[in-house]
Design goal:
By secondary structure, this protein is α+β, with helices and mostly antiparallel strands. 38% of the residues lie in helices and 21% in strands. 15% of the residues are buried.
Length: 84
Amino acid sequence: MAKIRLDLHGIFNKGSLIESELNRVLAEAVKKRISLVEIIPGKGSGQLKKRLLRFLAQPRIKNLYHRVEKDDKNFGMVLVHFRH
């Protein structure tokens, strides 16, 4: 199973860069028919994870993927599944 991993730790305080990286990774997953994207917002205060989930809930973004899974074993990771 092919997957892409995006770690948001290094850009947590750069709002526009976060969205552009998320757009880039999701577009790459669609283009290359990748089945899983692991996004790591980190544990922290939870604000970055909330922002990530709001981004993924947008209708134009939601049409790209199949489902989002919040990892039960690792609070600091979100899994985005694609069905191609």
